[in-house]
Protein 1
Amino acid sequence: MHDKGITTAAVCVYPARVCDAVKALKAAGCDIPVASVATGFPAGQTHLKTRLEEIRLAVEDGATEIDVVINRTLVLTGQWKALYDEIRQFRKACGEAHLKTILATGELGSLTNVYKASMIAMMAGRL
């Protein structure tokens, strides 16, 4: 497909499958990066310690991009500082890997919450 100019930004897999995806892509002679959905995807309701370890393990196994799920309860209860702090920890756990934040905007209750969560994700996700 590459010779036809067709490619993709990344192959996205669950954290436990990162190593398999990296190996399979290398074996196929493909240089497409591996991304991983982490932090208890899709709900994001696991313990923070577990979510951080999931990020670290995915990066250690070869993921160059981490897609994190925010804890939507923090948004729905107005715990904005806690949301910021959590995303900062995700950013740190990613190291050099690219961080993307999944907001699940349809579950945030209002456009104001979507706006606030978006702004916090952008501020907290900076290197």
Protein 2
Amino acid sequence: MPVRVNWGTQNEHFLFDLPDPSTPLGTIREIIAAHIDVAPDTFKIVHDGALILDNNAPISHYAIRHDSILQLVTPTGESDEERLKITAIKEQLVAIRVLGNELARFTQRESQSQATYTKQLAYFQESFTQLLLRLDATDLQKNWVHARALRKEGVASAQAFLDRIDAART
């Protein structure tokens, strides 16, 4: 009896013959991906209620047999709330880049008084701190991987500019 693979929201499924038990899970993942026309890394495989993760382990390690049923779990996509958060984070990233360009132009100018220089650095420091705090205050759910990655990028970028400002003061 072949292995049954359930996927999608409409009880879609297909059957395939199981290769040798020493076959790595990654090979099974590629067979499944070719069958449903998606990239192999875009879904997770569940067997007997357990999430199967190690693509290098042989399928015998997971007790996948000829009568097994595999369930595919695919990401559901971004919710409206997540898209709004991503948009807000991207706006902060743009603001960080624009302010970073202004900081670069400012630090390249040679003829400026010490008072002006100190005052402008304080302005940049305050602006980057506000952007950093806005990003930090953005509440994101655990499974919003893209939004979390963008926020992390923004925080790192703002922090790097703050470090440059601190270095310029010394």
Protein 3
Amino acid sequence: MKGSLNGIRAILFDAGGTLIDLDSSRICDLISTELGIEPLPDRFPRAQCLAGFRIGQLIASGAKSTEKLFKEYYTTLLTEIGAPQEKLAAGLERILELSKSEMLWRKTADSTASILAELKERGLRLGVVSNSDGRIESVFKQLGLADYFDLIIDSFVVGVEKPDPGIFRLAVERASVAPQEAAYVGDLYSVDVIGARRANLIPVLYDPFGLNQSADCLRISAMSDLIGLIEEGKS
């Protein structure tokens, strides 16, 4: 879908799968060492997107169990990076166990900081709205990105999660902008696009592997595309 971000004053972001990614090295090392299989790390970026796409489908069909969604996510991920069927249960158990003691979502693209800096230089308010477990702000601090944001909202902390429009309304209130003056960028249509649209924000779907070709919203394949959408709005 063509369009622009004409007149926006704020851009809000999803965290996992959008601004930050799973630590692929940690997960690949884990399944190599503990399961005795050699993963295919080159497949990891697409595998992560396919796993997200899968849980997006489940949410769209009515799935609400967080535990079930996490299991499906990591099962899809393991399958896509080469784990054989007979190793999936053990791999899933180990990743879920590890995720309780370590924040596995802790990597970001090298270009993220420069893109956020450019958006800030354009006078935009920036924020994060994430379905997380209380640890997301500390992750952004560890990555050196927290200072780019005017607000970081963690669903665990505020007690409401996407796609409930309430969490988006809270975000624009904290950003001191009207809903229609804010764009929300996320990777899951059924969570990010639907939720943002219900709260009257402008949804932007982050779709780096083109899995959502028919999406009825603005769609980007790279974070740098946001600059182009803003520029189009000025022409």
Protein 4
Amino acid sequence: MGRELIDLASKRGIEVTQEDEETVEVFCKQETKVTAEQVEEIMKNAKVLISTEFGKCTVVTVKLPNGFTITESSGCVDPSNYDVRLGTDICLKRIRNKVWELEGYVLQKKVHEEGIL
């Protein structure tokens, strides 16, 4: 991407210095997005506790690699409809989404503090 930006500037008659090129290259190497792979790596290295409460509620607590914990629950009205696997899947999906959001916050903080964007 960096080379394309530099070439585009040159084509438009904009003088590009060596310092400009270095700045563009550094910027393009910066990570400015959270990826599914990052989130999955965090989840893969997390500790997961699953419990059933009152015969109709699944509670999932995840301890992330850095020690932060996230807890989610999923339940049903009629205990005869209770499925611990379904409840666990629902909770883990919610937790993944929270991890994604938290990682986004961390990245936004870094981008802001380092003046990347």
